Amino acid sequence: MNHVTKGMKIVLAFLILLSLAVILLFGYQDIPLHELKGKYANSASSFILVNGIDVHFRDEGNQADTIPIVLIHGTGSSLHTFDVWADNLKNKHRVVRMDLPAYGLTGPFSHSNYSMAHYTSFLRDFLTALGIKKCVLAGNSLGGQIAWNFSLAQPNRVEKLILIDAAGYPNKSQSQPIAFKLAKIPILNKLLTYITPKFFVRASVENVYFDTSKVTDTVVERYFKLSLREGNRQAFIDRLGSSVVDSTHQKIKDIQQPTLILWGANDLLIPVVNAYKFQAALPDNTLVILNDTGHTPMEENPIESLAPVLDFLIH
Question: What domains can you pick out in the chain, each with its CATH number?
Answer without folding.
Answer: 34-314 (3.40.50.1820)
